Write the C-alpha cells for this entry.
Amino acid sequence: MTGTALAAIALPAVVQAQASEGDIDPEAGEPIVVTGIRESLQSALNRQRNADSLVEVIEAEDIGKLPDQNLAEVLENVTGIQITRSAGVGTGVQIRGTNDNRIEINGVSTVGSGTGRGGISFEDINAAIIASVEVIKAPEAKTIEGSVGGTVNLRTIRPLDLRERIVSARVQGEYSELSGNVKPRLSASFGDNWSTSIGEIGIVFSGSYAEQEATSFRPRVDRDSLVPAGSSVTADGQPGPDFPFLGVGFVNQVLENFEYETTNFAGSLEWKPADNIKLYFDAIVNDQQRTQDSSRVSSSGLTSVLRNNVPDEFETIDFGSLDGVDLGSIQAALVGTYQPNLDVDDDDPNFRISSDTGARITKSRIYRLGTEFETGRFRGRVEASTSRSGSRNPNLSTAINFINPNPLTPLDGTSNDNSVPFRYDLRGGTLAFGIDFDSPYAPTVAQLLDANNYVLDAIAIGDNRTKNREDAFRLDGSLDLDGLTPFFTSFDVGYRYNDTSNRFDLIRSIFDTGIIAESPNGALFEELLVAGPDNFGDFDNRDLAFRDFLIIDPNRSFSDPEGTLAILRDALATTAGSIGDPVADPSGFFRIKEATHSVYGQLNFETGPFRGNAGVRWVSTKISSFGNNVAGGVVTPITAGGGYEAWLPRVNVAADLTNDLVFRASYGEDINRPKFDDLSLSVNFPTGPNNAVSIGNPNLAPENVSSYDASLSWYFAPASLLSVGVFHKKRTNLFVTQVEDVEVDENGYRDITPPCEGGGIYNPLPDRNVLSPTVGNGLCVPIQTIINDTGSTTQTGIEVAFQYDLSQFEDVLGFASGFGVLANYTYQKFGGGEATNSSSTRGSDIFAAASPGISVPVTAVQGLLDFSKHAYNVTLYYEKFGLSARARYTWRDAFRTLDTAGGATLNSTYGFPVVTAARGQLNGSINYDLTPWMNIGVEGVNLTKSKITQYCVNESAIVCFQGMPDRRITFGATMKL
C-alpha cells in the first residue's frame, strides 16, 4: 500500500453533470465544501442522475485543494481531454482533439495574454483559488458561443452557499529535479455568511502566491540534406557509398528554463436583502511573471562539408505513406563525425551559442457585477462584466560565435565563423551530439572556456506589448411554466452584448554582425561571460552533449538588462557597430475590434422519463482590423472590416430508462472565431533565416461546427458508474496552415534580393549565414498563412468512463475496502478536408530519391493538429484511516503538431507538421490527516521521467526532436479551522 501511495496522484470526481452556465436559479445551489474522495464522487454521481446535458465536473475535495497544482493538469483527468506541456508544465488543453475551446470564470469570458482566442492561460491561475471545474461538451442555447470541443468554466466559492465558515491555509514547496531548486507555494481562503437586519450577507476571499521552475532539454537534429549516390567521400578521401543517403545538416541543443511567479486573488460578495432578490460582485486578479532563461547551442554549416564526411553507420528510414502515396525508404546517417575540410570550406562547421532571456509579465483582471431577482413566475438576472489583460515581453537575446584557435583552422577574415569538428550518435532514437575532441582540429576545453575565443554575433532587445479586453452586458430571464402546460416546465430567454479588442505593438531593436571585423571580441565583454549549463545529460545520463562553452550570463541579462546592454554597446563601439533602444516597429502593429450581439430562447421540458431543453442562439458580429503598410520608409495606416451572422440551434434530451440507467442525447451548432493575429493586416519579420514570415488573412470566415452526442450511463452500485458515449462533429471552414516555400539552388543557397521570384518573401533582417555565399543580412524566406479549408471535415469518437468503490464491502474486506478505481478511454477519428501541406524543396528531393518515380511535391491533407486517436487514464486510489493516496497513469496516442524544438519550421520538417509519438506519464500523491485540522502530503509529476519523441513526416519515420521534461515533487501541509 505504501508503494502504491508513493506513486500516486490526486484525482477528483469526474462525471457528467448538468450545464450551469446561464443558470440563474438562486435556489439551485451546489455543494461547495466536499470532504474526502468518496463524498466528492458520490455527490457528483447524484448530480449526474438529474442531468440533462453532457458536462464533465471536477470538484475540489477540500477548499483550495484541487487534485493537481496546474489547471491544465487538473483537466487531464477528464474523459476526452488531452494536454500539451511546455518544459513539463501543462499549458495547452485539447477537448475532443481540438485546442479551439473557451475558458470562463464563473460564466464570464476570459481574455488571454497573447493574440489567441482560448482565454486566460491555465498556467496563469493557481488551482488553489478554484473550487470546481466544469467542461461543457454539449452546450445549451444559453451557453456562450465560440468553442469547438467545449467550454471550460472555472468556479470559485459562492458565499451564500456555504454551510459553515471557511478558514484554511496551505503551505507547500515544489522541487524541480533538473534545476535542483525548491520553490514556495502559499494559499489561503476565508469565507462566511451572516443573517443581518438588512438581509443575508456572504463573503469569500481566496488568495495564493506560487513560484515554480520548470526545465526541459530539447535536442534537435535535422537530417534533411540529401547526398546523391556516389557523390561523397570520407574525411580521409576514400569513395563514399553508391547509394543516396540523408546527412545531418543541423544540430541544436536546446535547454528551456522557465520560472513562474504567480499571485492570484478571488473575492466574492453576495447580499440577499430579501428572499426574492440577490446582488453579487466578483473580482479575480491574476498577476504573473514568467521568466525565460534558455540556451541554444548549435552547429550549422554542416552542409558545406556534408559530402566530405561519410557517416560511420547508417539506418534505414521508412517514410511510410501520406494520403495513400508510398514515400519509400532511404539510408540516413546514424553515427559519424564532421571534420573540417579547408579546401572545401575554411570556416565550417561552426559553433554558435544563443541565449534567450526575457519574460512575459501579465496582469489580468475580471470583474462581475449583477443581480438575480424573482417575481411571481418570472426570474431574472442582469449582469455586467469586464475581462482585461495586459502583457509586456521584455527580452534580451544574444548570440556569440566560437572562433577556433586551433592552428589547423586559420581565419580568412570574411566570416565570424571558424571550423569546429563535431560527432553524433543517434542510435536508439537518442539525439546525442557534441564536439569531436578526438579530431586534430578540435579545440581544448580550456580554449572553449576562454573569452578571447568568442565574438559577438547578434543582439535582439524587445519589449512587445499586448492588450486584450472584453466588456459584456447580459440580460437573462426564465418564466416558470409548471402546471400551465403538460410538457414544458419553463422558458428561458436572454440577450448578451460584448465589445472585444486586441492590440499588439512590436517593440524591438536588432543588431547582427556578418564578418569578424564587425564582431567584438569576447575579451571586451568578458565580465558578462559565464560557463554555460553542463547538465544536459542529467535526464538520461547521456555522455555525448555540448558541456563546455561560454554564454552571456542569463541571470545578469534578466536582472540588469540596462547594465548588460551598456557593456555590449561599449564593445560594439570598438567596431563602429551600435544598437539603439527598442522602438515600436509600425510594420508589426495591429489592432482588432469586435462587437457581438447574441439572443437566445430555450424551452425546458419534462414528461414521463424524458427531460431536457431545446432552443436557438442568434449571433451577429462586426469586425474592424487596423494595421500599417510600410513601403520605402513611409507608414500608411490600413483598415478592413467585415461581419457575419449565425443561427445556432441546440437540443439536449435525457431519459431515465430505469432507476440505474440514464440515456442522454444532444445536438448543437457553434462557431469558432479565428485568432486575432490570423486577422492581422501587418507583417512581422522574424530575425531567423529559416523562420517563415506569418501573414494574416483578414478575410478568414469563422469555422462552423455541428455536434451530435449520445451516452448511456449505468449506476450499477453505490459511488460506481459505467458510461459509454459517442460523438460526431462536422466542421466547415476549418483553419489550416499553408506555407509557400522558397526556392534553393543546387548548393542550398537562396535568393537574396526582392521580389523573390522563386517564392517566399524578402526579409531584410536575418543574417544569411550558410544560406548564401554573400555575407550580409536579408534573404528570401517562406511565407506562412492561415486559410479556410474549402472542404468539410468530420470527427467521430467514443468515450468510456468507469468508476468503482470498494467501501461498500467494509465488513468483508476491512482495510482493503479503502481502494477504488477510476478510468476512462477515448477513441476518435478524423476525416475529410481538402487543404493540404506540400513537401518543401528539400523534402521533395528526398522523397524523389527514396521512391523513384514519385510525383513531387508530395501533398497531404493537413487534418487536425494536436489530435490523438486513442487516449486513456487510470487512477487507483486509497482512502481510509486518515490516509489518502492515488496513482494516475495517463497515456495519449501520437499526434501531429507545429510545436517543435529549436526554432524549427515547416520548411525544415520536410513541409509537414511533425508527429509527437505516443507517450504515457505517471503522477502521484499521498496525504495524511495528522489531526482533524492539519493534513500533510507529497505529490509527484512525471515520476518515471517519461521523455517526448518527435518524428518528421510519420511516426517512427525519422527522429527529429526530443523533449526531456522535469520530474517535480511538491510537499507541504494544509490547515483548517
The first helix runs from residue 2 to 6. The two ends are 30 Å apart (CA to CA). Residues 1-35 have pLDDT under 50 and may be disordered. Residues 100 and 303 are 40 Å apart (CA to CA).
